[in-house]
């Protein structure tokens, strides 16, 4: 069953088609009267015709309507033309056929009224459905507004989280630079320690060579002294004095060498202690870096969960709006 707006649109489209077929004003008004009365079951009036056609003056539809009713009455009186039938019988047959035609017209009008009542009921039902759809649309708009507000808040939270992430990344970068600086300093200290150990080893080797040379010289001197004892018994005291002096000198040199070895060992111990302190600082910096990296990973996971939660909250509102639109199209 067509609703009233659809029927009016189809009627107007048919009238537009009649404009091209009947350029004369009276012919066009006559065909519109036939269309309204016989196809749509509407009683044509001069105002209705002028509103639909809008051609010529107001007297044109009135004149065409008068000719239409005259033609309709003339055709309702059916004449039976037969040369063998008497005139009274022909008149009676014509009146009977006319009465049948009028009864058929009345039945058609009654059926048309029923169809119009059904159409009005359908229109009322459609209006009720439209009002329900409007209410659903308003509810969907309210839900959409709430979702938009929540989306705005989520975006603000996301912006704050991104700021926190940027600050945390800056702190991580600063700590990484400190770790790199500590690593470079440790490398420098390690190289300095290696150089000091190399120098200490070289000096120790030189001291050992000097001690060995001194011992060699001392042994040679002792041998020469022993060889010269018999020849220089008179100079025993003097030689003994020289020997004691040589021993003292060797003892002094040995003590100096031992002192130097102790100083080098202290320097090596100090370097090792400093290296241990740097290793401890490096471990602490790495722990801080790992802690910040875990914080950054937590923030990144929160940021990844925010769009999923936002989409899950916005999806029901979109589903309601889509459902309302589909319901309107189906109706």
What is the topological layout?
Blueprint (H helix, E strand, L loop, with lengths): L3 H18 L3 H15 L6 H8 L5 H18 L10 H143 L6 H95 L1
Helix pairs in contact: 1-2, 2-4, 3-4, 5-6
Describe the structure.
The chain has 331 residues and is mainly alpha-helical. It folds into two domains: 4-132, no CATH class; 163-312, Orthogonal Bundle (Helix Hairpins). 90% of the residues lie in helices and 0% in strands. The protein contains six helices and no strands. Helix 3 (46-53) crosses helix 4 and helix 5 packs antiparallel against helix 6. The longest helix has 143 residues, at 87-229. The mean pLDDT is 79.
Key features?
6 helices; Helix Hairpins; mainly alpha; 331 residues
Largest sheet: none
> Mean of the pLDDT scores?
79
Note the overall shape: rod-shaped
Structural class: mainly alpha
Residues in β-strands, percent: under 5%
- Please compute the radius of gyration using only Cα atoms: 61 Å
Q: How many domains make up the 3D coordinates?
A: 2
SS field, number of helical segments: 6
Overall CATH architecture of the largest domain: Orthogonal Bundle
The CATH class name of the largest domain reads Mainly Alpha
Give the CATH topology of the largest domain: Helix Hairpins
The residue ranges in which pLDDT falls below 50 over 5 or more consecutive positions are none
Percentage of helical residues? over 70%
Please give the alpha-carbon distance between the first and last residues. 12 Å
